[in-house]
Amino acid sequence: MKRRRNIEFVKENLVHKTKLLETQFEDLSNELIYEIFDYFDYFYIYEIFSKLNLRFQSLLIDSSLRLKIKLSSISKSILQNQYKSIIYTRRNQIISLNISKYFLEYFPLNLFTSLQCLTIQKIQFDQILLLINHLNCLANFSSLTIQTSDYFQNENSIYLAIFRLARLKFCKLTFPSGGQRIPLPLAIGQCQTLECLVLNGHCRLDQLISILSYVPKLHHLTCEELSSSEYIDITRIPENLTSICLTPYRMSFNELKLLLTSKISFKLKKLRIKIFNNESFFHAEQWKELILNYMPCLRRFDLQYTGLIDECFQRNLIVPFHSKFWIDRQWSFDYHYYYDCDDLNYLTFFSIVPYRSNHYTLYEPLHNDICSSFQTNSINFARHLTIHRCVEFDKYSIRFPRVTKLTLKNNSIEKNASFIKNINSLVPLIQITDLDIRNNNLSIIQLSKVLCLLPNLQSLSLSNTSLFHSKHNTTVNLSSRHNKITKLIIDDDDEWDIKHIQFLLRLFPYLQYLEIGIDENNLDDILQYLLLKFKSIFSLFLLNVNHEAIKKIEILIKSENLIHDYTIEHVHGGLYLWW
Description:
Helix 6 (125-135) packs parallel to helix 7 (155-163) and helix 16 (523-533) packs across helix 17. By secondary structure, the chain is an alpha/beta fold. Helices cover 28% and strands 22% of the residues. The strands form two sheets. The chain has a twelve-stranded mixed β-sheet. It has helices spanning 2-21, 30-37, 42-49, 54-61, 76-89, 125-135, 155-163, 205-212, 253-260, 284-294, 311-318, 324-328, 419-423, 444-452, 498-507, 523-533, 549-560; strands at residues 67-70, 94-100, 117-121, 143-147, 170-174, 196-204, 220-227, 243-248, 270-276, 300-308, 333-339, 345-351, 359-363, 384-388, 405-409, 434-438, 459-462, 487-490, 513-517, 539-543, 567-571, 574-578. It starts with a helix and ends with a strand. The chain is globular, with a radius of gyration of 28 Å. InterPro entries: LRR_dom_sf (IPR032675). This is F-box domain-containing protein.
Protein backbone atom coordinates (compact mmCIF):
# COMPACT_ATOMS: atom_id res chain seq x y z
CA MET A 1 0.00 0.00 0.00
CA LYS A 2 2.80 2.39 0.93
CA ARG A 3 4.62 1.48 -2.30
CA ARG A 4 1.49 2.35 -4.35
CA ARG A 5 1.13 5.73 -2.59
CA ASN A 6 4.79 6.47 -3.37
CA ILE A 7 4.24 5.65 -7.05
CA GLU A 8 1.17 7.90 -7.20
CA PHE A 9 3.12 10.69 -5.48
CA VAL A 10 5.93 10.38 -8.04
CA LYS A 11 3.40 10.47 -10.89
CA GLU A 12 1.69 13.59 -9.52
CA ASN A 13 5.07 15.25 -9.04
CA LEU A 14 6.06 14.45 -12.64
CA VAL A 15 2.78 15.84 -14.00
CA HIS A 16 3.27 19.03 -11.97
CA LYS A 17 6.83 19.49 -13.25
CA THR A 18 5.72 18.81 -16.84
CA LYS A 19 3.08 21.56 -16.56
CA LEU A 20 5.71 23.94 -15.23
CA LEU A 21 7.92 23.18 -18.23
CA GLU A 22 5.14 23.77 -20.76
CA THR A 23 5.15 27.18 -22.39
CA GLN A 24 2.17 28.66 -24.20
CA PHE A 25 2.41 31.40 -26.79
CA GLU A 26 0.79 33.84 -24.37
CA ASP A 27 3.57 33.22 -21.86
CA LEU A 28 6.16 34.77 -24.15
CA SER A 29 7.46 38.26 -23.50
CA ASN A 30 6.23 41.20 -25.58
CA GLU A 31 9.69 41.57 -27.09
CA LEU A 32 9.75 37.95 -28.26
CA ILE A 33 6.20 38.16 -29.64
CA TYR A 34 7.19 41.25 -31.62
CA GLU A 35 10.13 39.34 -33.07
CA ILE A 36 7.73 36.57 -34.18
CA PHE A 37 5.30 39.13 -35.64
CA ASP A 38 8.17 40.50 -37.71
CA TYR A 39 8.01 37.41 -39.96
CA PHE A 40 4.38 37.95 -40.96
CA ASP A 41 2.11 40.35 -42.80
CA TYR A 42 0.41 42.73 -40.35
CA PHE A 43 -3.13 42.03 -41.56
CA TYR A 44 -2.54 38.29 -41.22
CA ILE A 45 -1.50 38.88 -37.60
CA TYR A 46 -4.37 41.31 -37.09
CA GLU A 47 -7.00 38.76 -38.21
CA ILE A 48 -5.62 36.14 -35.81
CA PHE A 49 -4.88 38.15 -32.66
CA SER A 50 -7.00 41.31 -32.65
CA LYS A 51 -9.95 39.62 -30.91
CA LEU A 52 -7.98 37.24 -28.73
CA ASN A 53 -7.64 39.34 -25.57
CA LEU A 54 -6.79 42.84 -24.33
CA ARG A 55 -3.07 42.16 -24.18
CA PHE A 56 -2.81 41.30 -27.87
CA GLN A 57 -5.09 44.17 -28.81
CA SER A 58 -2.67 46.50 -27.02
CA LEU A 59 0.33 44.91 -28.75
CA LEU A 60 -1.25 45.38 -32.17
CA ILE A 61 -1.98 49.07 -31.69
CA ASP A 62 1.32 49.89 -30.01
CA SER A 63 2.95 52.75 -31.89
CA SER A 64 6.39 51.11 -31.57
CA LEU A 65 5.32 48.08 -33.65
CA ARG A 66 6.96 48.11 -37.10
CA LEU A 67 4.46 46.91 -39.71
CA LYS A 68 4.87 44.81 -42.86
CA ILE A 69 1.91 45.01 -45.23
CA LYS A 70 1.21 42.55 -48.06
CA LEU A 71 -1.74 43.48 -50.27
CA SER A 72 -0.89 41.84 -53.59
CA SER A 73 -4.18 39.88 -53.59
CA ILE A 74 -7.12 41.60 -51.97
CA SER A 75 -10.55 42.84 -53.02
CA LYS A 76 -11.10 46.51 -53.67
CA SER A 77 -14.00 46.66 -51.22
CA ILE A 78 -11.95 45.14 -48.36
CA LEU A 79 -9.09 47.51 -49.08
CA GLN A 80 -11.43 50.49 -48.97
CA ASN A 81 -13.76 49.47 -46.14
CA GLN A 82 -11.47 47.61 -43.74
CA TYR A 83 -7.81 48.23 -44.44
CA LYS A 84 -7.65 51.74 -45.84
CA SER A 85 -8.29 53.49 -42.53
CA ILE A 86 -5.84 51.19 -40.67
CA ILE A 87 -3.13 51.80 -43.27
CA TYR A 88 -3.63 55.55 -43.18
CA THR A 89 -3.69 55.69 -39.38
CA ARG A 90 -0.58 53.50 -39.04
CA ARG A 91 1.27 54.83 -42.10
CA ASN A 92 4.27 56.08 -40.08
CA GLN A 93 4.83 52.58 -38.62
CA ILE A 94 4.89 50.76 -41.98
CA ILE A 95 8.41 49.66 -42.95
CA SER A 96 7.54 47.17 -45.74
CA LEU A 97 4.92 47.14 -48.53
CA ASN A 98 4.18 44.31 -50.97
CA ILE A 99 1.53 45.72 -53.31
CA SER A 100 0.19 45.92 -56.84
CA LYS A 101 -0.01 49.15 -58.82
CA TYR A 102 -3.68 49.58 -57.82
CA PHE A 103 -2.63 50.42 -54.27
CA LEU A 104 -1.22 53.68 -55.64
CA GLU A 105 -4.78 54.81 -56.45
CA TYR A 106 -5.31 55.25 -52.70
CA PHE A 107 -1.92 56.13 -51.26
CA PRO A 108 1.06 58.04 -52.66
CA LEU A 109 4.17 56.34 -51.33
CA ASN A 110 5.67 59.51 -49.87
CA LEU A 111 3.05 59.21 -47.09
CA PHE A 112 4.96 56.27 -45.59
CA THR A 113 7.79 58.11 -43.90
CA SER A 114 9.29 54.96 -42.28
CA LEU A 115 9.15 52.81 -45.42
CA GLN A 116 12.30 50.74 -45.96
CA CYS A 117 11.24 48.04 -48.40
CA LEU A 118 8.86 48.09 -51.40
CA THR A 119 7.76 45.26 -53.70
CA ILE A 120 5.35 46.38 -56.43
CA GLN A 121 3.76 44.21 -59.12
CA LYS A 122 1.99 44.84 -62.44
CA ILE A 123 3.19 48.43 -62.60
CA GLN A 124 3.34 50.05 -66.04
CA PHE A 125 6.32 51.89 -67.42
CA ASP A 126 4.73 55.35 -67.27
CA GLN A 127 4.10 54.94 -63.51
CA ILE A 128 7.62 53.85 -62.54
CA LEU A 129 9.34 57.25 -62.71
CA LEU A 130 6.63 58.90 -60.56
CA LEU A 131 6.92 56.03 -58.09
CA ILE A 132 10.70 56.46 -57.79
CA ASN A 133 10.35 60.24 -57.34
CA HIS A 134 8.07 59.60 -54.34
CA LEU A 135 10.62 57.16 -52.89
CA ASN A 136 13.28 59.87 -53.07
CA CYS A 137 11.57 61.65 -50.18
CA LEU A 138 11.91 58.67 -47.81
CA ALA A 139 14.94 58.90 -45.53
CA ASN A 140 15.18 55.17 -44.65
CA PHE A 141 14.23 53.56 -47.95
CA SER A 142 16.72 50.79 -48.90
CA SER A 143 15.06 47.96 -50.87
CA LEU A 144 13.14 48.13 -54.18
CA THR A 145 11.58 45.28 -56.19
CA ILE A 146 9.66 46.13 -59.37
CA GLN A 147 7.78 43.65 -61.56
CA THR A 148 6.28 45.04 -64.76
CA SER A 149 4.51 43.42 -67.69
CA ASP A 150 5.58 46.34 -69.92
CA TYR A 151 8.96 46.44 -71.59
CA PHE A 152 11.02 49.46 -70.62
CA GLN A 153 10.48 52.05 -73.37
CA ASN A 154 13.33 54.16 -71.99
CA GLU A 155 15.38 52.00 -69.67
CA ASN A 156 18.05 54.61 -69.07
CA SER A 157 15.64 57.07 -67.45
CA ILE A 158 14.57 54.34 -65.01
CA TYR A 159 18.12 53.29 -64.15
CA LEU A 160 19.21 56.90 -63.59
CA ALA A 161 16.18 57.55 -61.36
CA ILE A 162 16.98 54.43 -59.31
CA PHE A 163 20.62 55.47 -58.91
CA ARG A 164 19.42 58.77 -57.41
CA LEU A 165 17.89 56.88 -54.46
CA ALA A 166 20.64 57.81 -52.04
CA ARG A 167 20.28 54.96 -49.48
CA LEU A 168 19.21 52.12 -51.75
CA LYS A 169 20.95 48.81 -50.90
CA PHE A 170 18.88 46.26 -52.85
CA CYS A 171 17.21 46.51 -56.27
CA LYS A 172 15.44 43.79 -58.28
CA LEU A 173 13.86 44.56 -61.68
CA THR A 174 11.72 42.03 -63.58
CA PHE A 175 10.67 43.07 -67.08
CA PRO A 176 9.99 41.45 -70.50
CA SER A 177 12.30 41.78 -73.47
CA GLY A 178 11.90 44.81 -75.71
CA GLY A 179 12.48 48.53 -75.62
CA GLN A 180 15.71 50.45 -76.04
CA ARG A 181 19.12 48.82 -75.82
CA ILE A 182 21.30 51.95 -75.59
CA PRO A 183 23.95 51.91 -72.83
CA LEU A 184 24.17 54.72 -70.33
CA PRO A 185 27.14 57.08 -70.52
CA LEU A 186 29.83 55.75 -68.18
CA ALA A 187 29.64 57.32 -64.73
CA ILE A 188 32.52 59.17 -63.07
CA GLY A 189 32.99 59.50 -59.31
CA GLN A 190 29.72 57.85 -58.26
CA CYS A 191 28.99 57.28 -54.55
CA GLN A 192 25.77 55.27 -54.99
CA THR A 193 25.18 52.82 -52.11
CA LEU A 194 23.58 49.91 -54.00
CA GLU A 195 24.99 46.56 -52.83
CA CYS A 196 22.76 44.01 -54.60
CA LEU A 197 21.35 44.29 -58.15
CA VAL A 198 19.10 41.66 -59.78
CA LEU A 199 18.07 42.11 -63.43
CA ASN A 200 15.41 39.61 -64.55
CA GLY A 201 15.19 40.79 -68.14
CA HIS A 202 17.20 41.16 -71.33
CA CYS A 203 20.39 43.20 -70.96
CA ARG A 204 23.27 43.66 -73.41
CA LEU A 205 26.85 43.37 -72.15
CA ASP A 206 27.68 47.01 -72.95
CA GLN A 207 24.51 48.06 -71.12
CA LEU A 208 25.44 46.01 -68.07
CA ILE A 209 28.95 47.47 -67.92
CA SER A 210 27.60 51.02 -68.14
CA ILE A 211 25.12 50.25 -65.33
CA LEU A 212 27.93 48.84 -63.18
CA SER A 213 29.88 52.09 -63.50
CA TYR A 214 27.16 53.77 -61.39
CA VAL A 215 27.30 51.29 -58.49
CA PRO A 216 30.88 51.16 -57.11
CA LYS A 217 29.80 49.51 -53.83
CA LEU A 218 27.96 46.60 -55.49
CA HIS A 219 28.60 43.20 -53.85
CA HIS A 220 26.11 40.96 -55.66
CA LEU A 221 25.02 40.96 -59.31
CA THR A 222 22.45 38.75 -61.05
CA CYS A 223 21.61 39.10 -64.74
CA GLU A 224 19.20 36.49 -66.10
CA GLU A 225 19.44 37.22 -69.84
CA LEU A 226 22.80 38.69 -70.85
CA SER A 227 23.50 39.07 -74.57
CA SER A 228 26.58 40.13 -76.52
CA SER A 229 27.47 43.59 -77.85
CA GLU A 230 29.97 44.87 -80.39
CA TYR A 231 32.10 47.06 -78.12
CA ILE A 232 32.63 47.21 -74.36
CA ASP A 233 34.66 49.54 -72.14
CA ILE A 234 35.68 47.88 -68.87
CA THR A 235 37.67 50.78 -67.43
CA ARG A 236 35.04 51.68 -64.79
CA ILE A 237 34.01 48.43 -63.18
CA PRO A 238 33.15 48.02 -59.46
CA GLU A 239 35.90 46.29 -57.49
CA ASN A 240 33.85 45.04 -54.52
CA LEU A 241 31.80 42.33 -56.20
CA THR A 242 31.88 39.05 -54.26
CA SER A 243 28.99 37.26 -56.01
CA ILE A 244 27.99 37.07 -59.70
CA CYS A 245 25.15 35.01 -61.22
CA LEU A 246 24.79 35.20 -65.01
CA THR A 247 22.74 33.52 -67.73
CA PRO A 248 24.55 34.34 -71.00
CA TYR A 249 22.29 34.39 -74.05
CA ARG A 250 23.55 34.53 -77.63
CA MET A 251 27.10 35.27 -76.63
CA SER A 252 30.40 33.34 -76.65
CA PHE A 253 32.69 32.43 -73.78
CA ASN A 254 35.35 34.84 -75.05
CA GLU A 255 32.87 37.75 -74.91
CA LEU A 256 32.01 36.98 -71.30
CA LYS A 257 35.71 36.48 -70.55
CA LEU A 258 36.33 40.17 -71.35
CA LEU A 259 34.14 41.03 -68.37
CA LEU A 260 35.47 38.34 -66.03
CA THR A 261 39.14 39.11 -66.68
CA SER A 262 38.68 42.71 -65.50
CA LYS A 263 39.16 43.85 -61.90
CA ILE A 264 35.51 42.84 -61.32
CA SER A 265 36.71 39.28 -60.46
CA PHE A 266 39.53 40.02 -58.03
CA LYS A 267 37.39 39.74 -54.84
CA LEU A 268 34.87 37.28 -56.27
CA LYS A 269 33.88 34.48 -53.87
CA LYS A 270 30.90 33.04 -55.76
CA LEU A 271 30.41 32.61 -59.52
CA ARG A 272 27.30 30.99 -60.97
CA ILE A 273 26.88 30.52 -64.73
CA LYS A 274 23.80 28.99 -66.38
CA ILE A 275 24.12 28.10 -70.09
CA PHE A 276 21.72 26.73 -72.71
CA ASN A 277 23.07 24.89 -75.78
CA ASN A 278 26.35 26.82 -76.13
CA GLU A 279 29.36 24.52 -75.97
CA SER A 280 31.85 27.42 -76.00
CA PHE A 281 31.21 27.61 -72.22
CA PHE A 282 31.63 23.87 -71.68
CA HIS A 283 35.42 23.51 -71.54
CA ALA A 284 37.02 22.76 -68.17
CA GLU A 285 40.51 24.05 -69.08
CA GLN A 286 39.32 27.55 -70.01
CA TRP A 287 37.42 27.87 -66.70
CA LYS A 288 40.46 26.55 -64.81
CA GLU A 289 42.73 29.14 -66.47
CA LEU A 290 40.24 31.95 -65.78
CA ILE A 291 39.89 31.02 -62.10
CA LEU A 292 43.63 30.59 -61.47
CA ASN A 293 44.62 33.86 -63.13
CA TYR A 294 41.78 36.23 -62.20
CA MET A 295 39.78 34.85 -59.25
CA PRO A 296 42.10 34.27 -56.28
CA CYS A 297 39.28 34.46 -53.72
CA LEU A 298 36.75 32.19 -55.46
CA ARG A 299 35.22 29.68 -53.05
CA ARG A 300 32.10 28.57 -54.92
CA PHE A 301 31.83 27.76 -58.63
CA ASP A 302 28.38 26.72 -59.85
CA LEU A 303 28.12 25.78 -63.54
CA GLN A 304 24.87 24.56 -65.12
CA TYR A 305 24.91 23.53 -68.77
CA THR A 306 21.96 22.21 -70.79
CA GLY A 307 22.24 21.29 -74.47
CA LEU A 308 21.38 18.89 -77.27
CA ILE A 309 23.26 15.63 -77.14
CA ASP A 310 26.29 14.84 -79.21
CA GLU A 311 27.11 12.04 -76.81
CA CYS A 312 30.68 11.13 -77.79
CA PHE A 313 31.81 14.77 -78.04
CA GLN A 314 30.20 15.83 -74.78
CA ARG A 315 31.61 12.91 -72.79
CA ASN A 316 35.06 14.16 -73.79
CA LEU A 317 34.09 17.58 -72.41
CA ILE A 318 32.78 16.14 -69.13
CA VAL A 319 35.88 14.12 -68.14
CA PRO A 320 38.20 17.16 -67.58
CA PHE A 321 35.79 18.52 -64.95
CA HIS A 322 36.86 15.61 -62.70
CA SER A 323 40.58 16.45 -62.70
CA LYS A 324 42.71 17.23 -59.62
CA PHE A 325 42.06 21.00 -59.92
CA TRP A 326 38.31 20.54 -59.33
CA ILE A 327 38.67 17.77 -56.74
CA ASP A 328 41.10 19.81 -54.61
CA ARG A 329 38.55 22.62 -54.39
CA GLN A 330 35.71 20.18 -53.64
CA TRP A 331 33.82 21.38 -56.73
CA SER A 332 31.94 18.30 -57.88
CA PHE A 333 29.74 17.88 -60.95
CA ASP A 334 27.19 15.41 -62.24
CA TYR A 335 25.16 15.00 -65.41
CA HIS A 336 22.26 13.12 -66.92
CA TYR A 337 20.54 12.66 -70.27
CA TYR A 338 16.82 13.16 -70.83
CA TYR A 339 14.02 13.65 -73.35
CA ASP A 340 12.44 17.06 -73.76
CA CYS A 341 8.92 17.85 -75.00
CA ASP A 342 10.16 17.93 -78.61
CA ASP A 343 11.44 14.32 -78.21
CA LEU A 344 15.02 15.46 -78.71
CA ASN A 345 17.74 14.14 -76.40
CA TYR A 346 19.41 16.59 -74.03
CA LEU A 347 22.28 16.66 -71.56
CA THR A 348 22.22 18.54 -68.26
CA PHE A 349 25.61 19.05 -66.56
CA PHE A 350 25.57 20.74 -63.15
CA SER A 351 27.40 21.44 -59.90
CA ILE A 352 26.34 18.96 -57.23
CA VAL A 353 26.75 21.38 -54.34
CA PRO A 354 25.14 23.63 -53.21
CA TYR A 355 21.81 23.09 -55.00
CA ARG A 356 20.69 26.62 -54.17
CA SER A 357 18.58 27.66 -57.16
CA ASN A 358 14.96 28.55 -56.50
CA HIS A 359 13.71 26.45 -59.44
CA TYR A 360 14.79 22.94 -60.33
CA THR A 361 13.59 20.63 -63.14
CA LEU A 362 13.62 16.85 -62.74
CA TYR A 363 13.55 15.07 -66.11
CA GLU A 364 12.75 11.54 -67.19
CA PRO A 365 16.22 10.07 -67.78
CA LEU A 366 17.28 8.75 -71.16
CA HIS A 367 18.04 4.97 -71.21
CA ASN A 368 17.17 4.86 -67.48
CA ASP A 369 20.45 6.73 -66.85
CA ILE A 370 19.90 8.36 -63.43
CA CYS A 371 22.81 10.47 -62.24
CA SER A 372 24.56 9.36 -59.05
CA SER A 373 23.84 12.57 -57.11
CA PHE A 374 20.10 11.72 -57.23
CA GLN A 375 20.81 8.42 -55.46
CA THR A 376 22.83 9.55 -52.45
CA ASN A 377 20.21 11.08 -50.13
CA SER A 378 21.10 14.58 -51.35
CA ILE A 379 19.09 17.68 -50.45
CA ASN A 380 17.92 20.32 -52.92
CA PHE A 381 16.68 23.64 -51.48
CA ALA A 382 14.64 24.77 -54.50
CA ARG A 383 11.20 26.22 -53.76
CA HIS A 384 9.79 25.44 -57.22
CA LEU A 385 10.09 21.94 -58.66
CA THR A 386 9.17 20.97 -62.23
CA ILE A 387 8.78 17.26 -63.00
CA HIS A 388 9.06 16.47 -66.70
CA ARG A 389 7.64 13.30 -68.24
CA CYS A 390 7.53 9.92 -66.47
CA VAL A 391 9.98 10.01 -63.59
CA GLU A 392 10.31 6.76 -61.57
CA PHE A 393 10.51 8.14 -58.05
CA ASP A 394 11.56 4.90 -56.35
CA LYS A 395 14.94 5.20 -58.11
CA TYR A 396 15.65 8.62 -56.57
CA SER A 397 16.80 9.44 -53.06
CA ILE A 398 17.11 13.21 -53.59
CA ARG A 399 14.77 15.35 -51.43
CA PHE A 400 13.19 18.78 -51.96
CA PRO A 401 12.12 19.81 -48.43
CA ARG A 402 11.35 23.48 -49.23
CA VAL A 403 9.25 23.17 -52.37
CA THR A 404 5.92 25.02 -52.28
CA LYS A 405 5.28 25.24 -56.05
CA LEU A 406 4.99 22.13 -58.20
CA THR A 407 4.82 22.02 -62.02
CA LEU A 408 3.91 18.79 -63.83
CA LYS A 409 4.62 18.57 -67.59
CA ASN A 410 3.88 15.71 -70.00
CA ASN A 411 3.73 13.16 -67.17
CA SER A 412 0.93 10.91 -68.51
CA ILE A 413 -0.64 11.06 -65.04
CA GLU A 414 -3.85 9.65 -66.48
CA LYS A 415 -2.01 6.35 -67.12
CA ASN A 416 -0.32 6.16 -63.71
CA ALA A 417 -2.72 6.32 -60.78
CA SER A 418 0.04 6.48 -58.16
CA PHE A 419 2.15 9.19 -59.83
CA ILE A 420 1.15 12.07 -57.54
CA LYS A 421 1.21 9.97 -54.38
CA ASN A 422 4.75 8.84 -55.23
CA ILE A 423 5.93 12.45 -55.50
CA ASN A 424 5.59 12.57 -51.72
CA SER A 425 8.83 10.58 -51.51
CA LEU A 426 10.62 13.65 -52.93
CA VAL A 427 8.43 16.55 -51.80
CA PRO A 428 6.15 16.92 -48.74
CA LEU A 429 2.83 17.34 -50.59
CA ILE A 430 1.20 18.94 -47.57
CA GLN A 431 3.25 22.11 -48.09
CA ILE A 432 2.40 22.60 -51.80
CA THR A 433 0.40 25.81 -52.28
CA ASP A 434 0.83 26.30 -56.04
CA LEU A 435 0.26 23.62 -58.71
CA ASP A 436 0.72 23.97 -62.48
CA ILE A 437 -0.42 21.00 -64.62
CA ARG A 438 0.66 21.14 -68.27
CA ASN A 439 -0.08 18.70 -71.12
CA ASN A 440 -1.62 16.03 -68.92
CA ASN A 441 -4.96 14.66 -70.15
CA LEU A 442 -6.63 14.20 -66.78
CA SER A 443 -10.26 13.36 -66.23
CA ILE A 444 -12.23 15.25 -63.58
CA ILE A 445 -12.04 12.21 -61.29
CA GLN A 446 -8.25 12.02 -61.70
CA LEU A 447 -7.92 15.75 -61.01
CA SER A 448 -10.05 15.27 -57.91
CA LYS A 449 -7.68 12.60 -56.61
CA VAL A 450 -4.69 14.85 -57.28
CA LEU A 451 -6.23 17.75 -55.35
CA CYS A 452 -7.15 15.54 -52.40
CA LEU A 453 -3.43 14.86 -51.91
CA LEU A 454 -2.69 18.61 -51.73
CA PRO A 455 -4.78 19.88 -48.79
CA ASN A 456 -3.15 23.33 -48.65
CA LEU A 457 -3.25 24.13 -52.36
CA GLN A 458 -4.23 27.76 -53.04
CA SER A 459 -3.32 28.31 -56.71
CA LEU A 460 -4.02 26.00 -59.65
CA SER A 461 -2.99 26.43 -63.32
CA LEU A 462 -4.19 24.11 -66.08
CA SER A 463 -3.20 24.05 -69.74
CA ASN A 464 -5.38 21.22 -71.01
CA THR A 465 -9.00 21.61 -69.95
CA SER A 466 -10.88 19.20 -72.20
CA LEU A 467 -11.77 17.38 -68.97
CA PHE A 468 -14.19 20.18 -68.04
CA HIS A 469 -16.11 19.80 -71.29
CA SER A 470 -17.00 16.17 -70.73
CA LYS A 471 -20.68 15.26 -71.09
CA HIS A 472 -20.49 13.48 -67.74
CA ASN A 473 -19.00 16.30 -65.75
CA THR A 474 -22.23 17.26 -63.99
CA THR A 475 -22.20 14.02 -62.02
CA VAL A 476 -18.72 14.56 -60.62
CA ASN A 477 -17.94 16.07 -57.23
CA LEU A 478 -14.40 17.50 -57.03
CA SER A 479 -14.40 17.61 -53.22
CA SER A 480 -15.34 21.27 -53.63
CA ARG A 481 -16.08 21.68 -49.93
CA HIS A 482 -12.54 20.63 -49.02
CA ASN A 483 -10.28 22.34 -51.55
CA LYS A 484 -8.96 25.80 -50.59
CA ILE A 485 -8.09 27.02 -54.08
CA THR A 486 -8.49 30.80 -54.41
CA LYS A 487 -6.61 31.36 -57.70
CA LEU A 488 -7.38 29.50 -60.93
CA ILE A 489 -5.64 30.04 -64.28
CA ILE A 490 -6.94 28.25 -67.39
CA ASP A 491 -4.13 28.61 -69.93
CA ASP A 492 -5.46 27.20 -73.20
CA ASP A 493 -7.14 28.38 -76.39
CA ASP A 494 -10.67 27.33 -75.43
CA GLU A 495 -13.42 29.94 -75.23
CA TRP A 496 -15.64 29.04 -72.30
CA ASP A 497 -19.40 29.48 -72.33
CA ILE A 498 -21.65 30.21 -69.35
CA LYS A 499 -22.58 26.57 -68.75
CA HIS A 500 -19.00 25.40 -68.34
CA ILE A 501 -18.02 28.39 -66.21
CA GLN A 502 -20.91 27.64 -63.85
CA PHE A 503 -19.66 24.08 -63.55
CA LEU A 504 -16.11 25.28 -63.01
CA LEU A 505 -17.09 27.58 -60.16
CA ARG A 506 -19.09 24.84 -58.45
CA LEU A 507 -15.87 22.87 -58.30
CA PHE A 508 -13.88 25.77 -56.83
CA PRO A 509 -16.28 27.66 -54.56
CA TYR A 510 -13.64 29.84 -52.84
CA LEU A 511 -12.12 31.41 -55.95
CA GLN A 512 -10.95 35.00 -55.64
CA TYR A 513 -9.04 35.28 -58.92
CA LEU A 514 -9.98 33.68 -62.25
CA GLU A 515 -7.99 33.88 -65.51
CA ILE A 516 -9.78 32.31 -68.46
CA GLY A 517 -10.67 32.69 -72.14
CA ILE A 518 -14.39 33.28 -72.80
CA ASP A 519 -16.81 33.28 -75.70
CA GLU A 520 -17.51 37.00 -76.24
CA ASN A 521 -21.00 36.12 -77.45
CA ASN A 522 -21.75 35.07 -73.86
CA LEU A 523 -19.96 38.01 -72.23
CA ASP A 524 -23.09 39.54 -70.68
CA ASP A 525 -24.35 36.27 -69.16
CA ILE A 526 -20.89 35.32 -67.86
CA LEU A 527 -20.28 38.67 -66.18
CA GLN A 528 -23.72 38.80 -64.58
CA TYR A 529 -23.20 35.31 -63.17
CA LEU A 530 -19.72 36.06 -61.85
CA LEU A 531 -20.57 39.46 -60.35
CA LEU A 532 -23.98 38.64 -58.89
CA LYS A 533 -23.95 34.95 -58.03
CA PHE A 534 -20.32 34.27 -57.12
CA LYS A 535 -19.56 36.33 -54.04
CA SER A 536 -15.99 35.30 -53.22
CA ILE A 537 -14.42 36.34 -56.52
CA PHE A 538 -13.06 39.88 -56.86
CA SER A 539 -10.55 39.72 -59.72
CA LEU A 540 -10.92 38.59 -63.34
CA PHE A 541 -8.58 38.37 -66.28
CA LEU A 542 -10.49 37.48 -69.45
CA LEU A 543 -8.22 36.33 -72.27
CA ASN A 544 -8.66 37.28 -75.93
CA VAL A 545 -11.14 40.08 -75.22
CA ASN A 546 -10.65 43.14 -77.43
CA HIS A 547 -10.29 46.71 -76.19
CA GLU A 548 -13.74 47.72 -77.46
CA ALA A 549 -15.36 45.34 -74.97
CA ILE A 550 -14.46 47.67 -72.07
CA LYS A 551 -17.17 50.17 -73.00
CA LYS A 552 -19.72 47.39 -73.39
CA ILE A 553 -18.86 46.01 -69.95
CA GLU A 554 -19.06 49.43 -68.31
CA ILE A 555 -22.57 49.94 -69.76
CA LEU A 556 -23.62 46.47 -68.58
CA ILE A 557 -22.28 47.01 -65.04
CA LYS A 558 -24.06 50.35 -64.75
CA SER A 559 -27.39 49.27 -66.27
CA GLU A 560 -27.62 46.09 -64.20
CA ASN A 561 -26.12 47.69 -61.07
CA LEU A 562 -23.67 44.77 -60.78
CA ILE A 563 -20.87 46.45 -58.80
CA HIS A 564 -20.29 50.01 -57.64
CA ASP A 565 -16.57 50.56 -57.47
CA TYR A 566 -14.20 48.78 -59.83
CA THR A 567 -11.09 49.10 -61.98
CA ILE A 568 -11.13 47.90 -65.59
CA GLU A 569 -8.32 47.97 -68.17
CA HIS A 570 -7.03 46.21 -71.28
CA VAL A 571 -3.73 44.42 -70.60
CA HIS A 572 -1.75 42.39 -73.16
CA GLY A 573 -4.62 41.07 -75.22
CA GLY A 574 -6.96 40.53 -72.29
CA LEU A 575 -9.29 42.42 -70.01
CA TYR A 576 -8.59 42.87 -66.30
CA LEU A 577 -11.41 43.66 -63.86
CA TRP A 578 -10.93 44.25 -60.11
CA TRP A 579 -13.63 45.20 -57.62
